[in-house]
Amino acid sequence: MIQKRIAIGGILHETHTFMPQRTRLADFQRQSFYEGDAVLSAMTGTHSGIGGMIAAANDWVMLPILYAAAMPSGIIVRAAYEALRERFIARLRAVLPVDGVLLALHGAMVSEGIHDAESDLVAQIRGLVGGETPIVIELDMHGNISNRLCDLADVLVAYDTNPHIDMYERGGEAGQIMRRLLNDAIAPTHAYRQAGLLLAPQYTGTGDAPLLAVHQRRAMIEQDEDVICVAVMAGFAYADTPDTGVSIIVTTDDHPQKAEEYAEELAELSRQQAHNLELALRSPDDAVMQAKGADGGPVILVDSADNIGGGTPGDGTDLLAAMLRHDVQEGTIVLADAEAVTKCHHAGEGAVITSSVGGKTDRWHGEPITVTGTVQRLSDGVFTCELRDNPFASFYGDTIQMGKTAWLRVAGVNIILTEHKTPPFDLAQLRHIGVIPEQQKMIVVKSAVAYRAAYLPIAAAVIEVDCAGLCSANLSRFDYKYLKRPIVPLDSLSPS
Ligand SMILES: [Zn+2]
User: Fold this and answer.
1) How remote is the CA of residue 313 from the centroid of ligand 1, in Å?
2) Which domain CATH number covers 24?
C-alpha cells in the first residue's frame, strides 16, 4: 500500500483589534515559530492540537510545513502576515503532491486590511492543492468564523472546553476525520449559523452559562451517527470584524437538512441562554464604598478590564482614583510604571515625593494620577512564589522578576510600583516588599481568573468592577466599526 502524504502546520493568533500596538513577525519568532522538520521535533508528544494530529498519523508520511503562534496582541502588520503566509505556501509547494492537509488555526486572526486572515490563508492553500484534496482544520473556540472558511475547508473541528484542555483530543479527532476522508468513508456537508450574539471572554467558560447548556446539547447531537462533528464557536469579542460573535458549524455525513436543523437549534439555544447573563459589574466608586463597609478584609476588587494575562498594560488607574477619593485606609494596588519607580529609587526610602502614577501606556486604562506620598520601601522586585503547586509558577518559574519595585504610601493607600507588569498570582508579590495582604481592607487585582488561587483563600469578599480597559466585560466601551448589527447585547433584543 502506498503511504498517504499529509501536510501539517498552522498559524495562530488571537487578534485584539482595539489594542494600539501592532503585532510583528518578531512576536511570532520570539514565541513559537518552527519550520519543516522542526515542527515535528517541537510538537510531537505535546498536548497541543498539532501534537494530537501527529499522534493520529501512524501510517502516514507527515509533511511538516510551518507552525507559528504568538500571544494575544494587536493587529498583525500586513508585511508580517504576508511573510508568514508566503513561507507557508512556499514550503507546501515544495512537498507537493499531498493527499491531505491538517491545519491548526485560531480563527480570530486579523491583519491590516484582512479581517478574516484564516480564510485568506486557506484560500491560498486550497488554490495550491486543488478542490479534491481534503483540508481538515482544528480551531480555537474563540475564533470568529466566516462562511467562506467553512466552504474552503472540508471539515472544521473546534475545542469544546474553556479553559482549553482538549486541544490534543480535538487534534486527534481532526486526524481521524482525515482518515475517513482519505478512505472515502464520509461525504461531509456543513451548515453554518451566526447567533447574533457577542460574548466578552469573561462569559465564555464552558462550565458556566451561557455555553454550558449549549455544550451539553452539542454532546448529545454528536451521538447522532449522521453527524461528523459540531463546532460551538464562542468568538472573540475584541476582534472587530464582520464575522465576530458566536457561531455554530454542524458537519454531517451527507445529511444537509439535519445539519441545518441542528445548527439553527444550537444558535437559538445560545441566544436563549445569553438572556440569563447577569452583568454583576460595579462602578469603581460603588465597589470601593462597598468594600469599605464590609466586615473584615481584604475585599478583592477585580479589575479584569486591565487583565495583564490578556495583554493589557497593568497600569489602569480607575480603582486607585476611587480609593483616594473615598479616603481608604489600607487599600493596595500594584501598578506597572517604570518611570515612577525610577523616581522612587532616586529619592530613596523615607523620602516624600510627588509623582504621576499609572495610565501612561495608552488612553484606554484611565488617566495618570498625580500623588504625593512616602517611599516606604524599595526592592529589586524579585520574589519566590509562596503558593505551592502554583499553576503560574510552572509557566514562569518559581522566582518572579518584576524589575525595580517601590512601595509608595499615599494617605492610607499602598501603591506598589513595578518596572515590569506582573499578573497577581501570588501573595509574595505584596509580602516581599512589606505589605501584609491579610491586613489590607481591600486589594485590587488586575486579572480575570489568575488571581483566584492565591487571593480567594484570604478574601472576605470579591467584587467585579467595571473599570476602563482593553479587556473590559462591558462591550459597550468599544467603538465597533465592522461588526454586523444588530447584535446582543449591544443592540436591544429584537421582539419575537
Ligand atoms: Zn481560546
Assistant:
1) 20
2) 3.40.50.2300
